[in-house]
Amino acid sequence: MEKDKLTALGGIKLFEGLPPAQLKSLAEISQLKGCKYGEILFEAGQPGTHFFAVVSGKVRVYRASLSGKEQILSVFQAGESFAEVPVFEGKTYPASAQALEDSVLLSIPRRGLVELLRREPELALSVMALLSSRLRAFVGQIAQLSLKEVPERLAGYLLLLRAAQGRDELTLDLPKGQIASYLGTIPETLSRAIKKLSEQGLIEVAGSRVSVLDPEGLAALAESDR
After folding, report:
1. Distance in angstroms (rounded) separating the CA atoms of residues 94 and 61
2. Start-end ranges of CATH 2.60.120.10 in the chain?
3. Quick count: other Cβ atoms within 10 Å of Cβ 54?
4. At what angle do helices 20-29 and 110-119 cross, to 10 degrees?
5. Under a CB-based contact definition with an 8 Å cutoff, are residues 188 and 195 in contact?
6. Residue 104 φ then ψ, to 5°
7. CATH topology of domain 148-223
8. What share of residues in the chain are helix, strand, coil (percent, to 5)?
9. Exposed, middle or buried by CB within 10 Å (0-12, 13-18, 19+), for 134?
10. 186-223 per-position pLDDT tens digit
11. Given this structure, which CATH class describes domain 2-145?
């Protein structure tokens, strides 16, 4: 089990470059956790006792309004970690997390982590760098949602997906309803945006497959302000 945790930790971006001794220390305080599709990992308002890293599978972090409408804040895949901030602050989770498919996670408790960070300044610096990067991405997401129309947001999303998958033939990583939530819109508006990009010759869509036909044009649309 300890070897499994070491292998899993080695694939997490947050811990890249850490020496074996520090990874071993992390393995000693962490646990591997399996979760099923749809399982709730934590809910907004609960104490932030653990943060998590995705070993395999996919997890969404979202907020729900009193009316039940959901806004997806982020989707985390293998190698990515989440819920660090409330754990470091010792506060409650500001959002909820749910497995989007059967997943394996590393669960790292606040108490053990705080003690470890006091002993391992290199690990503390790695965490700070990741949180700074996360903040920049969040600011960018806010700008996308508040300043751009849905076709521009969709173009930006597809470009991120293209960079992550490393090809022009993309597989949508979420159902279209959840992509709409992530982009701050509704499925009907997303469908119209997809149709618009297709008619402009920027993409070609077949089910959950999207072919990027004109990456430069897609980038120009994503960067445009209206």
Report:
1. 10
2. 2-145
3. 23
4. 160
5. no
6. -120, 130
7. Arc Repressor Mutant, subunit A (1.10.10)
8. 50, 25, 25
9. middle
10. 899 999 999 999 999 999 999 889 999 999 999 899 88
11. mainly beta
pLDDT digits (tens, 9 = 90+) for 158-187: 988 887 777 899 988 788 888 888 888 889
CA geometry: angle at 15 spanning 13 and 17, to 5°? Answer: 100
**Phi (first) and psi of residue 30, to 5 degrees:** -100, 165
What's this model's pTM, rounded to 2 decimal places? Answer: 0.68
Please tell me the distance from the alpha carbon of residue 182 to that of residue 193, in angstroms, as a whole number. 14
Backbone angles phi, psi at 109, to 5 degrees: -75, 145
Residue 95 near residue 44 (C-beta atoms within 8 A): yes
> Identity (one letter) of the amino acid at 114?
V
Rounded to whole angstroms, the Cα distance separating 129 from 154 reads: 28
- Identify the DSSP state of 204: E
Helices (H), the chain: 2-10, 20-29, 84-89, 110-119, 121-147, 150-165, 176-182, 187-199, 215-223
Dihedral (CA of 105, 110, 112, 118) sign: positive
What is d(CA 23, CA 5) in angstroms, rounded to the nearest whole number? 9
**What DSSP state is assigned to residue 172?**
-
The per-type count for the chain, helices as H runs and strands as E runs, is 9, 11
